[in-house]
Design brief:
Blueprint (H helix, E strand, L loop, with lengths): L2 H16 L3 H12 L3 H29 L8 H16 L4 H16 L1 H14 L4 H8 L3 H4 L4 H13 L6 H8 L6 E4 L6 H8 L2 E2 L6 E3 L9 H5 L2 E3 L2 H12 L8 E4 L6 H12 L3 E6 L2 H10 L8 E5 L11 E7 L14 H4 L4 H19 E11 L8 H5 L4 E3 L1 H9 L12 E2 L2 H4 L5 E6 L4
Parallel strand pairs: 5-6, 5-8, 6-7, 8-9
Antiparallel strand pairs: 1-3, 1-4, 2-3, 9-12, 10-12, 11-12
Helix pairs in contact: 1-2, 1-3, 1-4, 3-4, 3-6, 4-5, 4-6, 5-6, 13-14, 13-19
């Protein structure tokens, strides 16, 4: 049994049975096992790929085992998921996928369970991926391993944004590992310097983005110092759009109303420092507020002030010239990076999230000064969390395409029909971020 497979097993078990987050747990497991290079890459792909594709694998296992996979012991189900992914997606020889699965189940659940796993895996390895897809992949949800309700929400959002018929491409992009992208925080490190240090290349859209070929970004000096950090390029663009929407006047007060874990606060703080503005960063949870302080540690002293508070009630009316509200959401725009989230979210989660988004936006509107601009952002394209929230705003929408074009050096028409901007994973290679810019009249 390989150490890499054991690490993947521990990760998937913790995510599936204990509510762990793969992106937070995996680095710790790799370090504990002292895995680097190809072994670390193998373990990560095995765990993340299994978590993404478990819906498809359950359909295959049900056919191979003749029983509902949910009735299996968790240890058996996870081990067979891993073996199925090895066989269908990682070019592991069939006998190795069978043997490693059987050995793992024997260690975890004993000889009897291992005999069952052996029988199931032998049936799984009788067919290749194309043959299994033909046998069980009767729906988009099964073929692309997404819950049916998620497929429906994404399909509706695509159609509303002029991309009807593209849902299969979006689902496929959700199942492709995201590239590691860094942000070179302006005024703290030059992008060219970060490219030299990291061995990466410039991003396509953000003037601060550096795409890495691989490796461990935490080992870079700039990341250790806080002058750079891992941040999706789409996240960089929508945050920077708030700074680009109009010239910055010295002394402006900015607010990040839901700032944890601090990526957007650090980028905005760097931009605020350059424009002689200041930023208040508010976070409800103390442990996440601590992450914001850590993230903004390289921003010049006195620019960013972190507060622990409730974004639905925080602050004095009319106190801020620019506000970013990166609202808590379903996260269905970042399924590449959070492979387990598609299975954790349920349709009944949406009403509670929507109510929170409306409450946060209402308070942000109160806090905005006349003439000020509010960026409403979600990492979700779901209509109930995006267009429908903004439609209830009392403020006037500005054309976000112009601000995004200013950040990216492109033409506004490239970003849809407006006035909002919706990024798409299969089109832009970023998380599916939504941005609306709302302005409070001067009088």
């Amino acid at each position: 049994m390989s150490t890499a497979r054991d690490v993947a097993y521990d990760c998937v078990m913790a995510v599936s049975t204990e509510g762990a987050y793969a992106n937070l747990l995996m680095p710790t497991l790799l370090e504990r096992a002292r895995l680097e290079g190809r072994d670390a890459g193998f373990a990560t792909e095995l765990a993340y790929g299994t978590l993404r594709m478990r819906g498809l694998y359950d359909a295959i296992i049900e056919r191979a085992a003749g029983r509902d996979p949910r009735d299996l012991d968790p240890e058996v189900r996870v081990a067979v998921w891993l073996g199925t992914h090895q066989h269908l997606a990682m070019r592991v020889p069939p006998h190795a996928a069978v043997n490693e699965t059987v050995d793992q189940v024997r260690r975890e659940r004993g000889v009897g369970a291992s005999k069952f796993a052996n029988a199931v895996m032998r049936r799984v390895t009788e067919r290749d991926a194309a043959e299994w897809m033909e046998a069980v992949g009767t729906t988009l949800a099964t073929r692309h391993s997404h819950p049916a309700w998620v497929v429906e929400e994404l399909e509706a959002a695509l159609a509303a944004d002029g991309h009807d018929g593209e849902v299969a491409a979006l689902l496929e992009s959700d199942n492709s590992p995201a590239r590691v992208t860094l942000v070179a925080r302006p005024g703290l490190i030059d992008r060219e310097e970060l490219i030299q240090q990291a061995g990466g290349e410039a991003g396509e859209y953000s003037p601060y983005a550096v795409v890495l070929p691989g490796g461990r970004p935490g080992d870079l000096e700039a990341v250790a110092e806080g002058t750079a950090a891992v941040q999706d390029e789409g996240s960089q663009v929508v945050a920077a759009a708030l700074a680009a929407v109009q010239p910055i006047e010295p002394g402006e007060r900015w607010l990040d109303l839901c700032s944890g874990p601090g990526g957007k606060a650090a980028l905005l703080g760097a931009l605020a420092a350059d424009g002689a503005a200041t930023l208040d960063a508010v976070e409800l949870h103390p442990h996440r507020a601590a992450l914001v302080r850590q993230s903004t540690r390289a921003v010049p002293e006195g620019v960013v002030t972190v507060h622990t508070g409730d974004g639905t009630t925080y602050g004095e009316s009319g106190a801020y010239d620019r506000i970013v509200l990166d609202a808590p959401c379903s996260g269905l725009g970042a399924l590449r990076r959070r492979p387990e989230s598609r299975w954790r979210r349920q349709p009944e989660d949406l009403p509670e999230l929507v109510a929170l988004q409306k409450a946060l936006l209402a308070n942000a509107e109160r806090l905005l000064a006349p003439g000020g601009v509010l960026a409403y952002i979600t990492c979700s394209p779901v209509l109930a969390e995006t267009r429908e929230i903004v439609a209830g705003s009392t403020l006037r929408q500005r054309d976000a395409r112009e601000a995004v074009a200013g950040v990216t050096g492109t033409e506004p028409r490239m970003w849809g029909e407006g006035p909002h901007v919706q990024l798409w994973t299969h089109i832009h290679g970023t998380d599916a971020m939504f941005l609306a810019l709302l302005e409070k009249p001067l009088a």
